[in-house]
Design the sequence.
């Protein structure tokens, strides 16, 4: 989820991140550093990074972005890059467990009473994914609910209903 990404990037010590990537930074001015771009044969340090915004840019290749983009340039998936940056700043991707489930039981029951039979929502437990949540009561038919042939792609998940704290 975007929020998690922004939080991770905000907390990231950009200077330390690049040092950790084996990049030698040369100070340009108060905010900017120059470095040799590792993504092309760079003899003259044609890339720079702004410590304040955390954004880097290679002037030869016209590529750049955040620390996440930097990792992805190395062939790391978005999911993995996000998890790595999150971990660097002490924001491990939370995983749901039995101990963390009970508080959500009430929310699910409330939604059932309000007529919800299932929903697709951004997931707090998996910040970079979405969750399909179905409510089912015994063998009984669910009014208005129809089986959907998998896979059903949903590009824009609806906002979670009121009262949910995802
Ligand atoms: Zn480059």
Sequence:
């Amino acid at each position: 989820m975007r929020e998690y990404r922004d939080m991770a990037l905000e907390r990231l010590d950009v200077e330390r991140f690049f040092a950790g990537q084996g990049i030698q930074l040369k100070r340009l001015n108060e905010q900017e550093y120059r470095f040799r771009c590792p993504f092309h044969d760079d003899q003259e340090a044609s890339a720079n990074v702004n410590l304040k915004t955390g954004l880097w840019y290679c002037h030869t290749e016209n590529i750049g972005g955040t620390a996440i983009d930097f990792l992805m340039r190395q062939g790391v998936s978005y999911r993995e890059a996000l998890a790595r940056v999150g971990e660097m700043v002490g924001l491990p991707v939370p995983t749901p467990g039995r101990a963390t489930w009970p508080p959500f039981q009430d929310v699910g029951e409330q939604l059932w009473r309000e007529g919800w039979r299932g929903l697709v929502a951004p997931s707090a437990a998996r910040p970079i994914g979405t969750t399909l949540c179905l409510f089912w009561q015994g063998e009984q038919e669910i009014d208005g609910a129809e089986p959907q042939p998998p896979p059903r792609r949903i590009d824009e998940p609806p906002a979670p209903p009121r009262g949910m704290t995802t």
